[in-house]
Automatic annotation (TrEMBL):
The lineage of its organism: Eukaryota, Viridiplantae, Streptophyta, Embryophyta, Tracheophyta. This is Pentatricopeptide repeat-containing protein, chloroplastic. It comes from Sesamum calycinum. NCBIfam families: PPR. It comes from the Eukaryota. Keywords: Repeat.
Length: 586
């Protein structure tokens, strides 16, 4: 047989028949395949072709599969077909695994079609795994339903895939079916289900699964117990997570970080630091993720002292040069307002990435080092460093401060080329930049191009119109914002009051002040009352302004009196202005 003759003679390249059907397969790579080396060095003798029929071909096919060389494997498979060389079940298994690795659904389906009737159970499970890995849940479910005899592995594969893919109802439906069968769900199924419970709506079913785990006797297993704690954390029940954590007989680093993440998400940053201290005291291995969470908690608490102690531990462990630790350090110091220490931490990072650069640029921007920001940005572009949306956001903020339309528009164009304008926060920064540069036309173009503008974007556009005297346009946008269902925040209403002030819309402003809390859930602050004082005073309603100063639920500050005094001086009714003691403004 041509194929067999070729492969049996492959140990002697001089005997290679150039006219063989397999000569189109590149043989130069054969010597690079470990399986061929082992075969060549073995003591097996090729006594007769029949004893070795298809063995070497299948070895080579498996080797190609293990290297994820699907194209070459497919060509070789077709050549085996032409030469009537049988394909071993294990070869199909390795081919399906390669399809899973490369997410090659089409080739995976071809392999599935070749298996014929009643293939071995391990092959059907490989097919099932391939469909799940390729994200083809319909094909996976069809293959599962058509299985003659399902093993526990079959159930684990399909339930885990549904759970990981967010198809919780399908996963639970199959879980209930396995409960009614003769099979017993193993820990892997429970862990996969627990991972899929991602918010408070899943808490009830999560508790039921927890009870099932206890009944099945799968507790006192660190992976299972950690999954239970993680489920409670994601479902927002930190108390149950904490109780489960304390009852764990064995904890690993993942168990500890699970609790730290939960505390951080719940803004319980003191508890995050307490867990970190316990980890240190119990000599638990600390990794980059632990330090990242801890530094985030220190920044949230503005606790630079503890953060510096954590920094000292990082130095002691020799992790300061690692980008995964150095970047959170930079971010921590920036958020604490210590840009000098942030800069020093940045300099020690051996290979800063785009997140590192973004953090330090944010720091420079915060302290007004705008020219330095632009210099660094230009240097990064010239070096071909990968830039992210946060770097551009910082540059847009710098251009806002400078009112530098030319450089800002260039940065905008550069961001478009890099595909970084689809991020809401960056687009909002662009709107603010163009508005501060007085280019409301550009700001409006960015705003209209957004797919579902958020609160920040709407507020930026309203504020831009308000502060450039386009009060009616600002209020029209505010009404559109209300109709769109996007929530307002305190800054939104400051912009609205600014528009009302410019347009002299006293009654409308008063209605907004009264409806803030009732209709929009935004509690008025002193800033909002000062805006209202300014609106009354600009309209010459000084008595109403003074009444508001005396009746508002805040003590008037210097700004309250400043806006009143300035407007009082510009009115005909100077007598009220003279009644105010000048000491109020000192």
């Amino acid at each position: 047989m041509a194929g067999l003759q070729f492969l049996n003679s492959a140990f002697s390249q001089s005997s290679l028949p150039h006219t063989d059907k397999l000569s189109n397969i590149r043989t130069a790579n054969y010597t690079q395949i470990p399986s061929w080396v082992s075969l060549k060095s073995s003591n097996l003798s090729l006594k007769t072709p029949d004893m070795q029929h298809g063995k070497l071909e299948n070895v080579h096919l498996v080797s190609l599969s293990r290297q994820d060389k699907l194209k070459e494997a497919h060509e070789f498979l077709l050549e085996m077909d032409r030469c009537n060389v049988p394909v071993a079940p294990q070869s199909y298994k390795h081919l399906l695994e390669a399809c899973s690795n490369l997410r090659s659904l089409d080739f995976g389906k071809l392999i599935h079609q070749r298996l014929g009737k009643d293939p071995p159970a391990f092959l059907v499970n490989s097919v099932l795994q391939m469909y799940c890995d390729c994200g083809s849940f319909d094909d996976a479910r069809k293959a599962f339903d058509e299985m003659g005899q399902r093993t526990l592995v079959s159930w684990v594969i399909i339930i885990s895939a549904y759970a990981d893919g967010g198809l919780l109802e399908d996963a639970l439906e199959l879980f209930l079916r396995i409960q009614d069968s003769d099979l017993k769900a193993n820990p892997s199924i429970y862990i996969s289900l627990l991972k899929s419970f991602v918010d408070s709506s899943c808490l009830g079913i999560g508790k039921q699964i927890h009870c099932q785990v206890i009944k099945a006797g799968y507790t006192n297993n660190v992976a299972m117990d950690t999954s239970i704690c993680n489920m409670y954390v994601k479902c927002g029940n930190l108390e149950s997570a904490s109780l489960g954590f304390d009852l764990m007989q064995e904890k690993n680093a993942v168990s500890w970080t699970t609790m730290m993440v939960g505390c951080t998400q719940a803004d319980r940053h003191e508890d995050t630091l307490e867990y970190f201290k316990r980890m240190v005291n119990e000599d638990v291995g600390l990794d980059e993720f632990v330090f990242s969470i801890t530094l985030k908690a220190c920044a949230a608490l503005d606790d630079q002292k503890v953060g510096e102690q954590v920094h000292g531990l990082i130095v002691k462990l020799g992790l300061e040069n690692e980008v995964s630790v150095g970047t959170p350090l930079v971010d921590f110091y920036v958020k604490c307002g210590d840009v000098e220490s942030a800069s020093q931490a940045f300099e020690r990072i051996s290979e800063p990435n785009d997140v590192s650069w973004s953090a330090i640029l944010t720091g420079y921007s915060q302290i007004g080092e705008f020219e330095k920001c632009i210099k660094v940005f230009k240097s990064l572009r010239s070096q071909g460093v990968v830039l992210n949306e946060f770097i551009y956001t910082s540059i847009f903020q710098v251009c806002s401060a400078f009112a530098d339309f030319n450089f800002g528009s260039q940065a905008h164009g550069d961001a478009i080329k890099r595909g970084l304008v689809s991020y809401l926060y960056g687009e909002s920064a662009m709107i603010i930049m163009y508005a501060k540069c007085g280019r409301l036309d550009y700001a409006y173009q960015v705003f209209k191009s957004m797919d579902g503008p958020d609160t920040v974007a709407w507020t930026a556009m309203i504020a831009g119109c308000a502060y450039h005297g386009k009060a009616l346009e600002a209020l029209s946008l505010f009404r559109e914002m209300q109709a769109s269902g996007v929530s307002m925040n305190a800054v939104t209403f400051v912009a609205v009051f600014a528009a009302c002030s410019h347009a002299g819309l006293v009654e409308e402003a008063n209605r907004y002040l009264e409806s803030m809390s009732r209709e929009h859930g935004v509690e008025p602050t002193l800033d909002h009352y000062n805006c209202m004082i300014d609106i009354y005073s600009r309209a010459g309603l000084l008595n109403e302004a003074l009444d508001l100063i005396n009746s508002m639920p805040f003590e008037p500050d210097a700004m309250s009196w400043k806006v009143y005094w300035e407007d009082a001086q510009s009115t005909v009714n100077m007598s009220l202005g003279k009644l105010l003691p000048r000491s109020s403004f000192n």
